[in-house]
Records
---
Amino acid sequence: MATIKDVAKLAGVALSTASYALSGDSKVSTKTREKVLEAARQLNYRKNGFAMDLKKSRTNTIALILTDLSGPFYSELIRSIQDVALSNGYDLIACSSMGGEDSTAVRFLLEKRVDGAIVLAHNITDDILRAAAGERFPIVVMDRPITGDGLVNVLVDGEEGGYRATRYLIDQGHRSIAYISGPANSYDNALRYEGFLRAMREEGLEEKAKWKLSGSFIREGGYKATKMMIMQGELPSAVFYANDEMAVGGLKAFEEAGVSVPGEVSLIGFDDIQLAEYIQPPLTTIRQPMNESGSLAGHLLFQMLNGDQVEASYSLRIGLVERQSVLKVRNGVTGEA
Amino acid sequence: MATIKDVAKLAGVALSTASYALSGDSKVSTKTREKVLEAARQLNYRKNGFAMDLKKSRTNTIALILTDLSGPFYSELIRSIQDVALSNGYDLIACSSMGGEDSTAVRFLLEKRVDGAIVLAHNITDDILRAAAGERFPIVVMDRPITGDGLVNVLVDGEEGGYRATRYLIDQGHRSIAYISGPANSYDNALRYEGFLRAMREEGLEEKAKWKLSGSFIREGGYKATKMMIMQGELPSAVFYANDEMAVGGLKAFEEAGVSVPGEVSLIGFDDIQLAEYIQPPLTTIRQPMNESGSLAGHLLFQMLNGDQVEASYSLRIGLVERQSVLKVRNGVTGEA
DNA sequence: GTGAAAGCGCTAACAG
DNA sequence: CTGTTAGCGCTTTCAC
């Protein structure tokens, strides 16, 4: 690999002159610049990224850290962040936190291989986040509340979402409602569940212990939990799945058991994934404002990078997407037919 | 930010000793190591990633370059590559080539910010690829055939796929078949179209010019092209969409026009995206072996990184996924009813 | 304008 | 085992 030294030598100028010419500094004569550029071309010279970063101690790159790069759920979010990054002249890379402490993500954070980060990865501990963040290294955290120097939150009001979903079910006449839970250690799940409970309590409704099943946020989990519920005999008139993926799995379980949705049991989800619109029946769900939260996160990061002061926490509201998986009922029981 | 120098000073040892201690070299006494580690802890010291990379001129990171990070289509591919990278002790970052010449992706490639790359981004020119690749910088290209030093191809046989899709339609009795095309400059589209033509010719069938519409690989495009086809009056008995996204859009257009699928017109797609299984009717399509091609690409990259010799090009075969969007017909015309 | 020289933070010979 | 030293490739004063 040719270095700038080689270029300077070939062009017959000093190292610094080559550097100036290459970065388009105006204090180099056009003629000299041409000479340097020509030499660079001949040698197929490329700047070495690291040397540059090391020298400037800025990378012009921000990282988006996700639990799993392959989740389909993030499309919208990624796009909006990407837009903001691009329009600020920054590069965006995405990295996965799979592998925990030893993951790419943690290395990028701790070793400051980027200028800042947006994190949506529950397997990165608060400690790591606190250790990494600082005045010169802002981090926007989107999956938990956390405070500290250089740390800012962009959160979606999950409790409100859980409440809205449950409230909607109640308003449609449902009184026996089950909650299929996500992972026990998930902050998001906890919020949604709290909202569920608030709505239930408000109406003097009780959660039946045997309906409280866990499906760990994946389709298969929703499927199994629902199967179990069906096996136990007594069905609720509506079930609130802590996320859409589980609702999709649940729907399959009901279908296989010959239970009509929403005829016999109504379903509501959370997230509004792309699939939600396409399954039969289309899933009523709670929509997270991914676009808005993505651009907000991006903008905040750049403000911090510019040294501007920002609030420590931002909360976005959710919305209900009414489709066809919830049936209006009379007396709290959907009935046999 | 504390440097290794500060750590050494605080621990009262030489710079190199600190470096050795920090990287766990065995030639440092346990006691000294402890002292150094303690000093590092006190100063909240973190290695500077760039300095390390610059020195070692290796990053232990590979990049996956995608046109658009937010495409849902890549999930499986990303996962399989990620697995391979992780098990080789490498980090994987994903970056987008949006922005063309000035994109993050191009910078990472040209400035060698990673040790190698897997590319699936048609907006990165062959020239850039050739300029970036070399003996010390392997690139696996998955979206076009290209040869050169350090360049390897992993391709899916799109022509065969186009042929299989069309052949299937013909075998089901269809004789008037339309092809809704992807972007004119897409290599993938060209292959699929060629396969289509081969099957048509083989059977002595003609492509009707007015059915040759383009939908540029997006849902909206498929929708519009189909609308146009419907407006023109005469419908084919089957249509082959160059990808599933367009087929989804096309389905919507047919639905809106009250044309029954597959009753009046059969549909076949290409890619087998997640949605394909969930739409009504479930879409018959050509499946690309994403897992296989992802791991193959990953393995090849690491072999090249290790200096092993590999073939210049690998081709993977596709498969047909039979679902319910194609109807078997008698005489080449689906008929009015 | 141009050139010499001083590092950015780190690793790895090398000599003690 | 420990300390000295020479760079990795680049940018950027500071004199000329």
Note: The CA atoms of residues 243 and 270 of chain B lie 4 Å apart.
---
Amino acid sequence: MRRTCYCGEVTEMYLSKEVILEGWAHRTRDHGGLIFIDLRDREGIVQVVFDPAEIPRETFNTAKEVKSEYVLRIKGTVRKRPEGTENPKLKTGNVEVLAKEIEILNTSLPLPFKIEDEIDVSEEVRLRYRFLDLRRPEMQRKLILRHKAAQAVRKYLDSIGFIELETPFLTKSTPEGARDFLVPSRLNPGKFYALPQSPQLFKQIYMISGFDRYFQIVKCFRDEDLRADRQPEFTQIDLEMAFVEKEDVMEVTEGILKTIFSIIGIDIKTPFLRISYTEAIDTYGSDKPDLRIPWKMYTLTDILVDTEFKILREAIDEKNTIKALKVEGNTKFSRKDLDDTLAIAVNYGAKGLIWMRVSEGSVTSPIAKHLKEGEIKAIIERCEAKEGDTLFLVADKWEKACEILGNIRIELARRFNVIDEDRYEFLWVTDFPLLDWDEEEKRYVSVHHPFTSPMDEDIPLLDTDPLKVRAKAYDVVLNGVEIGGGSIRIHRQDIQEKIFKLLGIGDEEAKIKFGFLLEALQYGAPPHGGLALGFDRIIAIITKSPSIRDVIAFPKTQKGICLMTQAPSEVSEKQLKELFIQVIPPKR
RNA sequence: GGGGCCGUGGUGCAGACGGUUAGCACGCCGGCCUGUCACGUCGGAGGUCGCGGGUUCGAGUCCCGUCGGCCCCGCCA
């Protein structure tokens, strides 16, 4: 006996036909003299009827024993449901299967939660019983969509000449970037592999090897603290191209995203908007702005340059920037709203927060009396503020002031429900700085990574003003989420060495850590660049999942624990001994 | 490392200001039921109140610590 079709496929097409179905008992309704069993498999649910007039007593009694999630094989005939008993909620609702035979293939313990969407259960329980959670239609839809997206991306990239190539998981630990997961080497006592944070160096090597266009849908590993959108292992769509400029990489990326979104029936417009890092920070207070939020930020420093209001006077004298966020619309801020907004500001390091509400050509504000009429007018004009709009002002270092207001922008947009969840706003953020200054370590660090090419015209600045150097780097942003990023790489050994030097990586260290790359760059390395897309994040967005855990089959908790397997776990003395490893217990 | 929310039968929740039998819904078990589809109906079982300590005549409730889950800051080239 073999299955003839999936439960969810039994429609009028099968009328009067005999079918064999295999699946799980979704629900049973025992009316004493008549039993209904909803049988479920991955394609859906169909109602099976057991009528004692049609089958032997023994068969009927077997059906009586069935409980939730028993695994069944049922043979029966498809018939029209009696007039008036159709169920429009089911795809198969016009028909039912009149059972002739039933076989219980397996029983099931009572479940901790129901196998259905909209369950009211903690994520902790879902993760502990992930095998049941994944049985729910919602989770099956998400993982099947994930599969479809991966397949579509493969097909698309293959069609434009990309070659799917693998890279090692057991590889070399490199400085910079995230903390590595280490794997001890039994054959080389005291030495460790690292799991890759990304296939970065290998894909560059592939370019030097002449594969020209590489891609991979691949796991990456970073041992950092977890968030709703961060797991220690996650999946990237990773690609690299030779003989290209950033426009080429951006075009391919837009093609990939277009491909993925077409799966959910959304035709996204390309090319995406492009704005510079500086503009993104200045206007939206974020390098990954959510363009679904209409509110923007404005600079008021020049307007208030002669102010006598003490707090702002001091800010200007300290060469700080005064920024304003405009919250549009007649949004009513209660005392509590204002307090909460201040709390957000303080959380991001603000020393204070000024609010002003536009009203009858002037403003209502705790500081209104300290401002001249001309200043107020100029502020309203600069912000293009209308009646009822509320402005929030912060005075601080440019980047910090922007960042504080940027976070207020996001949190207030959520609170006042101004984000349209059905909109998808893509953009490119370009012209990132190449380097940042790390105050703790007292050295430059890469904003992107150490292999990112500086802009040609900024190369001289490497010697004079490194922080002014812009990178050939680009991030792709969707609805306030960084879904990908990449760069044109350095393909000349002299520049690469110079960057290492600036990063405080000495010749000796560079040779030890990246010797193979520096060497490869000397053997005809073509200009190249690429990008990686956060696959989990994209799938989370298109399935409207609040966390990437919902689109990862077996995710970890915030403490990095898999609640199903209880990994990580202790290992035996013997295992440690073989690896020449000794555990030092943490101090209590 | 830090801030916030949460932890009570299998699941989700309720338990004022500490008071004697810890309540509700769903699920589970048993009976009845031939057109249900969240079936109905009658009955029943099921609890270390996360864990440890303290205050008290008495702690699910108050205090301290600890463990776990979630959100966030730091961190994540």
Note: The first helix of chain A runs from residue 57 to 65.
---
Amino acid sequence: MSSKNFDLNDFGDEQPAPAIKPGGLAARAMGQQAEPPYLKGLNPEQRAAVENTDGPLLVLAGAGTGKTRVLTTRLAHILATGKAWPGQLLAVTFTNKAAREMRDRIGALIGGAVEGMTWLGTFHSIGVKILRNHAELAGLRSGFAILDTDDQIRLLKQLLEAHDVDEKRWPARQLASLIDGWKNRGLTPERVPAGEAASFGHGGLGGKLYAEYQQRLKVVNAADFGDLLLEVLRIFQEHPDVLKEYQRRFKYMLVDEYQDTNVAQYLWLRLLAQGHRNICCVGDDDQSIYGWRGAEVDNILRFEKDFPGAKVIRLERNYRSTPQILGAASGLIAKNESRLGKTLHTNREDGETVTVRAHWDGDEEARVIGEDIENFQRKGEKLNDMAILVRASFQMRAFEDRFITLGVPYRVIGGPRFYERAEVRDALAYLKIVASPDNDLAFERIINTPKRGIGDTSVKRMHAIARAQGISLYRAAEAMSLTDELPAKARTALRKLIESFNRWRQMAMGIPHTELAEIVLDESGYTEMWQNDKSPEAQGRLDNLKELVRSMGDFENLAGFLEHIALVMDVEQSAEEDKVSIMTMHGAKGLEFGTVFLPGWEEGLFPSQRSLDEKGRAGLEEERRLAYVGITRAKRRATISFAQNRRVHNLWQNALPSRFIDELPEMHVEVAPMATSYGGFGLGTYGKSRFDDQTKPFGNTYSTPGWQRAQQRWSDGKATRSTPRFIEGEMVARDTDAVKYAKGERVFHEKFGYGVISAVEGNKLTIDFDKAGEKRVIDSFVTRA
DNA sequence: TACACATCCGTTTTT
DNA sequence: CGGATGTGTA
């Protein structure tokens, strides 16, 4: 334990802590009257959740009820009253982002003492920490590698190949999710029910492959994400002495997003909580939206049975949304049967009703939302405070396209993640081998990247040697680079590679790790490979490599950096510029925006057909919770919309409005007329129509001749896109002093790649892209090629 | 080995 | 349609 803990123990006597009045703390600890300042402003329920520190406690925190505040204040309170030192608190979150936020906020409350909170983190980061301390009990050595999903799949592919399993019929991905599922449920290979073990490949290999996979992991000294929980759980179960040690250590436990815990996590917590029994779980059964990846809502529904004598506190005062938004969301979620039941209320009285809007098709939906956004922006609202929340990521494109045309800055949250990009993973593989040569998966990844003439056959031979002699692939390669088992070309290349690694490893001692990274990327020919690549992404990849090296600078050494990225696959996005957010409803959990758009509420899309097919009523309820999460993200304004026609896989489909729309309580909802129908438009929510000069020759019923004609044409698949003419005068003037482009110039666009300008109108360019075809974009989105 | 062509498939996602 | 992945050919 660090000396920080002792500092904290002292505080209250003489050393003032930054945010908390030491006198108050001391007084509190001694049971006197003075009120610690951090309790100010909490409502009675919140306060109870903070002050009920001992014994099991479940806090049911509805959306927008100040959950994070309660969580952080509670931890601060435990520390401030001297009940525990920072190192004796276990605080678990699901995401790194949540962990970071909690750490920051506690830091703001109690100052430097957070430094001592070594056990605040995600389930996985805490799992690694424990597993590194007891690796040998799990058949690993302490420097074990952590595999990400990609590595996992590659390992499984090798196994499948060895068993002659047809990867077409039985994809490695599917096996991976099967195994993940078992791990989520806390099942080691021996414990997988026989019926399920027989569920994969010819002759029911599932269980067998799982067992072999686990063995392989030990051989290559690696753990996958599931193991970070499962192996720790196994250690706890099989080594009571170790379990006791942690039970003693963790005097107070706090779990965020309890509704998202899976069985393994639940068992893990329950074992630990048998020590001091001071476990506080915070969650909201109505926001459980991760059932499809193993979360068990049951954990939260069963809490009082699992922890006899548990207190339950409900936080039902909402500080986020208007009564209308809250009413709409509550009315909807009330249709769910399996829930603990909460009634959110607010003291606010102002607010617009939730708008429901019908659109002719998806393009119109995107167009109208784009216009709304421009209008709000003109009124002075920040784009950062607006979001479009979709059910599935393919829906994002329509909005991106539209915003590119309009020149509305946007950010997509949940795209391909930084550390998952191929070039970043390649670069990391090089560095990992410098740090630990025996990382077979990393070595295999780059042995022929860039191409150096070491083909599959050579690699297979190395594998054979490695296996036969029980050594790592790298060692086998090292040996073979000196014999004549390989063709001359491959052997020379291999020798050169091995020599390079030896050289780099020598250097690693003497130079900063960022410099080492640059040298490795340079000398390995990896950077050059991308420099010679002429695809539109190449430049971006080179930029990513630069960014990677830069981000390494934030860490003291290579090992620290590698450990960090193994667990944190994402890199934080800057929120500096003012941009509209486009993300999935899943990705939006825990966030809030002034204005929220919820497009695509159509049967089959939302609720998603697949959810319904696979999970039936439970699936529907989870979708409904997702809808609830979506609506409750909004502070002041929520607009739900659906399109009557949608192009799915390039086929036009006639869509029905989502059943969730019917379930919204009428009193909180206003149905806006179709923007394109005759009459009545413009009276919806915000002022005058912007579409006077373009209407469609049919109303919003399903039976007009126009509708039927249009439908007929669309089903024939030769419909013209219903994109309206752009209304010049309404364009927001932007980038007036931007660089001017001329017809015929070759330009680069970060989304569409390279293209040639075919027309210029003011700041709007029409560009014929090599890959993406013809698009209209604003010139500021483009650079000269 | 590299590129062209074919084929398949189309939720949600964290660690 | 479009991307990801795989097969086939030069």
Note: Residues 745-784 of chain A form one domain.
